[in-house]
Amino acid sequence: xxxxxxxxxxxxxxxxxxxxxxxxxxxxxxxxxxxxxxxxxxxxxxxxxxxxxxxxxxxxxxxxxxxxxxxxxxxxxxxxxxxxxxxxxxxxxxxxxxxxxxxxxxxxxxxx
Length: 112
Description:
The chain is mainly α. The chain has 2 domains: 37 residues; 49 residues, Arc Repressor Mutant, subunit A, CATH 1.10.10. Helices cover 60% and strands 0% of the residues. The chain contains 7 helices and no strands.
């Protein structure tokens, strides 16, 4: 049996769905059980546009965290600002804003 296996149709569909829901490439790889590089290669090979690196202004970060604290969903925040969920968690943690699901912080490599 080969060391590497091809992505199945279900994995490909799941990768695409998770990507457009705003998950980071690392998160997608972890969820699907594949390396981040495989996820990236599949998305590039199939012509999915890469997310633009968004430089958030201080005003945007403040607005994003205000929405987060008021209970706006990750999906709505990420869609509005064009960012991944890990960006919301990163800025919340950096500013001392309590995370809604603290156990998510343990699965996130961005902070200790």
